[in-house]
Amino acid sequence: MSPPVMSPSPSPLLTASTTTSIPPPSLTPQLTNLSNTSNIVPPVTTELSLIQINSDRPSAVPSPSTTSPPSSSSSSTTILLAVLCSVVTLAGVAGIYFFVYRNTAFISDYEASIVASETPCRRSSFAATMGASHYEDITTTTIEINPKQLAYVKVLGIGSMCQVWLANWSPNPAMDTTSVAVKRLLPKRRNDHDVCTFLGDTRLLAVLRHPNIVAVLGLAWHTKVHIEVVLEYMDGGNLRQVLSTTNPLSMGWLDSKQEIAMDVVDALVYLHQEEIVHQKLAAETVLIHTGRRGIGAKLGNCGSMYRQLRPTSSSQRTTLSIFSPKLSPDEAHRQLQRRKWMAPEVLRGNEPTRAADMYAFGVLLSVLDTHDDPFKREALDEALILQRVSLGDLRPTLSLLCPPFIHDIAQRCLDVSPELRPTALVVAGWLRTPGLCSPSFVSTSVVHTRRGSLPLSASSSSYNGSLPSLSMGRVPSKAEAAYNVL
Prior knowledge:
Blueprint: H1 12-20, H2 28-36, H3 43-56, H4 68-102, H5 110-117, H6 127-130, H7 132-141, E1 150-158, E2 162-169, E3 178-185, H8 192-206, E4 216-223, E5 226-232, H9 239-244, H10 253-273, E6 276-277, E7 286-291, E8 294-299, E9 306-307, H11 329-339, H12 344-347, H13 354-370, H14 382-390, H15 404-413, H16 424-431, E10 447-449, E11 452-454, H17 480-485
Antiparallel strand pairs: 1-2, 2-3, 3-5, 4-5, 6-9, 7-8, 10-11
Helix pairs in contact: 7-8, 10-13, 10-16, 13-15
């Protein structure tokens, strides 16, 4: 009897595989063949392969909704960023251009800024703004200087309206370079009103011709509101700088002070003959130069001068109580110091006259003698000093080293009454008296003024080591007690 034929039992692994994961119909024959072969792949591997195949089948079909939208969104973002970058770049370029154009004076390399950013300007564009008379005077009395011929070196001084530069001027390659002073408006002052005022002052200065007044060499026209006045350069600085580096013993009247005083009064003689009032005579406006004949002086800052043809309006008068709130502390201090050179009647609100210039010349003699600011030794408040000067109760003082005749000239110029002050022409004659500043000088002459003969005191006729009888200190007044209380 033949043994019964038993069908082989399926493998446990294969059974588990078929029960847990039913393969697709197309793969059934392959699994059957694989189970009957001797080199069968391990069941675990087969199961993992089937699971991997089954899990990959659904992802084989691409989804159209996951590819096209991101491409459209990124393209829009790129375009938007490109537009924004272009706008920001254009705005930045425009901002830089206007900043450089409006603030060329603040750039250290001044020459590069004016050449790169400014357009040459014609004088004719100012004719309508300034008026025909101003325009004609400037064009006929000054030459036009190409700004490219000026090489700026350093700043010499800054005021409330203008600044002055030292520059080298080369008219052409065949000529030597000349040192000049270039005066121009501050950037904040470059508007139509201040430009017209600046050119009006320049017009008056340009027509003056005197060896003791700083001359205008020409004008450099950059733009409509950027104009420079080229002046002759004074290598010695101003009188204040000279006096601050010397003392009354090292710088005497015989050496240079008498020459400076004569140069200044000669300039005043010329101005007063032209009916022009300087108004701002001070140690800072007297410029010093050295030459073959030694030290000399010229009047500068003549832009404030005006022709004394008619009285000024009340709004143009300088009064003691007016202080502009727009001035910086430095500007306010300079203005306060300048008021100490003003005549009493000007401090009270009257118009400046030629007699006011002579009062300032008397203050100049005091400063030349002491090397100090006027009223520096007075232990009083600044405002109180000006008030007492305006009332005629306080005058500048001179030292014991001052020659007696110089002392008396200063006394005459500092008279509280404008009618009693000598003219510039009379003082010019006095200063040319031979041996005026000599310690052994003895005068038997009579000092003549416009009001008659006023003899000098006996003690002032010879130098005896003491002050003359004419006191240069405080003048007694009825208000003395009240001021002492204050």
